[in-house]
Design a protein that fits this description.
Residues 175-218 are annotated as: Disordered. This is DNA-binding phage zinc finger domain-containing protein. Pfam families: Phage_zn_bind_8. Residues 157-217 form the DNA-binding phage zinc finger domain. Residues 190-201 have a biased composition (Basic residues). By secondary structure, the protein is an all-alpha fold. Among the domains are: 3-79; 158-236, no CATH class. The protein has 9 helices and no strands. 11% of the residues are buried.
Length: 248
């Protein structure tokens, strides 16, 4: 925008705010808007500025060069909201850049009509069912629902994947809280936090049912039997270590 064009734009502003326009004003505005052309978007930016009421009803509107630049950019960006470049087959990088810039400039300036809607994906019921099935196999449990109470919302906020996502069957640590060591003191009335969760909590998080007392007894008996077999195979003797001397 040169000085003559800036004077025309200031005349457009004066129609709204009754300002006095001189040569110094035109020179200053031309310097501030040297990279902004005097076009219909610049004039529309002025009209939009004065068509929007101020936050303070007693405030007098007085447009500045930066207002013209900002509002003009918003006008042009709005036309590009749904723009999607459609490449040509086998086009080179140079051809892509030239066509892309040309389409952006044409739509942003209003020479070409702006896209009216976004491209939508075509529905395929079979593909959708396979996609949902794959998500379910990876642990997806469907859309989340809103909690009915503050207590449920708080419990849901600390729910997480892994062992801390379930209550510990061994020490009864709440969801989201680490497991506790046995015993308590005045300093640690709830017990010292364990660096690793209990095995029972790991099994519960993996969905493995907890063993009954009879099952644990059978498993312990099997472990003792394997240990006895290993001990009997060596005749109960502890072999001396063989010392190997270094060769000179």
């Amino acid at each position: 925008m040169n000085r003559s064009e800036a004077a025309l734009l200031l005349g457009h502003c004066a129609a709204f705010d009754n300002r006095t326009v001189g040569e110094a004003d035109a020179t200053a505005w031309a310097s501030a808007l040297h990279d902004v052309p005097y076009d219909n978007d610049a004039r529309t930016a002025v009209a939009r500025f004065y068509g929007t009421p101020p936050k303070d009803p007693h405030q007098r509107l007085w447009i500045q060069p930066h207002n013209v630049r900002t509002l003009r950019s918003k006008l042009r960006s709005a036309r590009l909201e749904n723009f999607q470049y459609e490449p040509l087959p086998d086009e080179s990088v140079g051809e892509f850049m030239a066509r892309y810039r040309g389409q952006v400039q044409a739509i942003a300036s209003g020479r070409a009509p702006a896209p009216v809607g976004r491209l939508a994906l075509e529905a395929d019921p079979k593909r959708d069912r396979e996609f949902v099935k794959e998500l379910t196999a990876r642990g997806w449990e469907g859309n989340r629902t809103v909690a009915d109470s503050d207590e449920e919302a708080e419990a849901d906020s600390i729910r997480r994947a892994g062992p801390l996502g379930v209550e510990c069957p061994a020490c009864h640590a709440a969801i989201g809280r680490p497991c506790k060591s046995p015993g308590a003191s005045e300093k640690r009335p709830l017990g010292k936090p364990r660096p690793k969760p209990h095995s029972a909590r790991l099994r519960a998080a993996q969905g493995v049912p907890e063993q009954t007392a009879e099952q644990r007894a059978v498993e312990e008996q099997a472990i003792r039997a394997r240990a006895a077999q290993h001990f009997a195979r060596d005749d109960g003797r502890i072999h001396d270590a063989v010392i190997v001397e270094d060769q000179p």
